[in-house]
Design brief:
The protein has 121 residues and is an all-beta fold. 0% of the residues lie in helices and 61% in strands.
């Protein structure tokens, strides 16, 4: 029904930058909130940043001032610009979207497959 495809992960040195992208496709009527989560080995998945359809944003305290989330509603795409990366940012990053499709009266959460971000010290 809905696919979220992420790109942009990789290996970077501490202090460097990466930009993640996530494009949603399928039988989409509308997308409410979109966000990025991450999961490091041995830890629970945590919210990194989220953005509503109206552009309101929310960030984890650990990334405020370093990461910026944005979205292009016309392209059903969300971005995460990550600057001043730290080794503790190393994790698998997952895209999430709350999507209303033509097949249902309810919006459901969808997840991407995850993209690895590794920050070396």
């Amino acid at each position: 029904q809905v696919q979220l495809v992420e790109s942009g992960g990789g290996l970077v040195q501490a202090g460097g930058s990466l930009r993640l992208s996530c494009a949603a496709s399928g039988s989409i009527l509308s997308i409410n909130a979109m966000g990025w989560y991450r999961q490091a080995p041995g830890k629970q998945r945590e919210l990194v940043a989220a953005v509503t359809s109206g552009g309101s944003t929310n960030y984890a305290d650990s990334v405020k001032g370093r990461f910026t989330i944005s979205r292009d509603n016309a392209k059903n795409t969300v971005y995460l610009q990550m600057n001043s990366l730290k080794p503790e940012d190393t994790a698998v990053y997952y895209c999430n979207a709350d999507v209303l499709t033509v097949l249902s009266d309810w919006a459901f959460d969808y997840w991407g497959q995850g993209t690895q971000v590794t920050v070396s010290s």
